[in-house]
Structures are given as C-alpha cells and as structure tokens.
C-alpha cells in the first residue's frame, strides 16, 4: 500500500499527523470548545431565508470583497470591542484558521519565522509549517502566564517576523493584559527595526467569554497589530466556518494578495449575516456559558483539583500523574474531554448545565477511585 512518505511530498511534512481531536460517539462531548447550544429556531428560519435568496444567484461568483458581511462584522466589533472600526479594517475567511493561514502566507513563508508562547493553540505552529514558516516555541511561566522579561528577551534574540499572542489562551484559558501585549509589540518592532517591523497577531477566538475587554483598541496607530476572531465559539456556529480579523486597512490589502479568489462562498456570507442579525440572543448564551465556566472552576476546586484561571469557555484542570489515563478514565464514565499533551493537565469545555453535571460526577468518581 502506498503511504504518504512514498509520495514526493515536502520533506517537512514527512512522518507528520494531521491536526484533530478524536471525534468519538459518546453521550457527553466536551473536547473541542464548541458552544453546546444549537442555534435558536428563529435564526434557523432567517438562515433559510437568506440562503434561499443567495441560491437564486449561485450561478454567479460571490461578492469577492464580502462588503456587506465586513460591514456587519465591523458594526459588531465597534459595539462590543470599545473601539470604532470600519469595514476597511475587517477581513473575513473560512474560520479563523484560514485568517491565520492568510496572515502567514502574506507575512511569514520560507526564510521567515513565527513565534508563539506554548502551550498554546497548536494550529499556529502547524499553519506555520504548512506555509513554510519556521516555528519558534517561546515558553510560559509555570502558571501559564507570559513572562514579559523572558519573552521580550527571546524576541530580541530570535527576531521573529510574526508573533502570536493567544488571549484567552487555548488550552490554558489564560488572558493576556494590554501591558504585556504592548511590551511584546514594542520588542517585536525594535528587533526588526531594520525592516518594516514584525506582525503581532492576537488570537481572540474566545474573547467574548473573558472577564476582560477585547484588546481591539490597541490596533489604533499600530499597523503591525492584528486581531483574529471567530464565529465558531461565541456565535455557536463552528459548522459555519467564519473567522475574521481587525487591523489597519493595509493588512487587509496585504492578505488580499494571497487569498483565493471568491474564497468565501455566497452561502457562507448569507449564513453569517443571518447569525449577526441575532447577535443579542447568541450573546445571551455566552452569559450562561460564562456562569457555567465559573461553576466548573468552583466545583473542580471543591473536589480537590487544581484549576488554571480561565477567561474562556473551557477550563484546564489537573494535576494528574498520567493525564492520558485520567482522560481515558473520564471517557469510561461517558464524558469526552481533551488531552492537549500538556503534562499533568486536561481541558474541559463548558457545556450545558446537564453536561457539566455529568462531567463533574465523572471526575468526582475518578477522584474516589484514584485520590
Ligand atoms: N484560535 C484558537 C485559539 C482556537 O482555539 C481555534 C479553534 N479551536 C481557532 C483559532 C480556530 O477556530 P475556527 O477556525 O473555527 O475559527
């Protein structure tokens, strides 16, 4: 049988596995940071209407610039982000993974490097690899915060072209404060002062669940700062595949050099526009999930687990001598959580109250079995 390595594949892809959490058929799935609430019925009706309209013109290519969608995303960001952005500041793609890919295609690539502070969202490193960008793994403190002094020193020494700051960070839930971002931004620009500086990408996929406001206002006067967002989490629309960025309009012009023509289908644009009409209802679910996240933190501590402070819709808990066998033991109780490979820790996504109860029962039972 032919294997991947028998093909004339790029050397850096040999022996590698694709990204992916196990998709197992178990009663309670709390492993991929999805929103547990299905879209409300009136929104499903509105999606149907909007998609029906779009279908009448599917013989034509979609709006390549997605102007109406970017206008509505700019309105949402302005309303919730504490800073006024225009459609020219916003760009949209098929999930924030594609946003990150377009950024690395435009600002990374062969001969260039990107740096992230790990453990963090593993796709940053994987997309770097896919785009031929060298990856530099910066470290975090033992409590998963970023050590500003060590980080700025590392940036000065390694001179990356792109710096990723994930806030709130996946898988730890840790938020990064504005002061840290500004220090890293300045360090990244100073390190590359002989060129046009370095791009700093703040991945805010989970920011709607945070106790802190968005870092959006920081893009003012900083053309090399980009905010990446998604409708997969707060909008409960992971299946839609809609991510977006906010930045200086020049960054939007730059990603247009690498985006595929008509990358965002008319059906996707219509669906996202329908969802944005229902923002208030969807953000109501976010409030419920934040309360459930806080309950998970409290109860996990009460049971005797260590918990990392979380600003996201998930909680990192431990510590386990062998996190993989703890993951399996929880699965044996019918609950799927995530083993992100952070030694000693597992991650659980906040689900519905009933799902969270099932999870808490499982970890209580495990604590009894192996105290
Ligand atoms: N950034 C972070 C930090 C994530 O955790 C995820 C999804 N797990 C993404 C980006 C990508 O999400 P999507 O492509 O669905 O927008």
Automatic annotation (TrEMBL):
PROSITE patterns: AA_TRANSFER_CLASS_2 (PS00599). Gene3D superfamilies: Aspartate Aminotransferase, domain 1 (3.90.1150.10), Type I PLP-dependent aspartate aminotransferase-like (Major domain) (3.40.640.10). The modification N6-(pyridoxal phosphate)lysine is found at residue 233. Its cofactor is pyridoxal 5'-phosphate. Its EC number is 2.6.1.9. The keyword tRNA-binding does not apply. Signal peptide: none annotated. It catalyses: L-histidinol phosphate + 2-oxoglutarate = 3-(imidazol-4-yl)-2-oxopropyl phosphate + L-glutamate. Residues 1-38 are annotated as: Disordered. Keywords: Amino-acid biosynthesis, Aminotransferase, Histidine biosynthesis, Pyridoxal phosphate, Transferase. Residues 28-362 form the Aminotransferase class I/classII large domain. GO terms for molecular function: histidinol-phosphate transaminase activity. Pathway: Amino-acid biosynthesis; L-histidine biosynthesis; L-histidine from 5-phospho-alpha-D-ribose 1-diphosphate: step 7/9. Belongs to the class-II pyridoxal-phosphate-dependent aminotransferase family. Histidinol-phosphate aminotransferase subfamily. NCBIfam families: hisC (TIGR01141), PRK03317.1 (NF002877). Homodimer. This is Histidinol-phosphate aminotransferase. The gene is hisC.
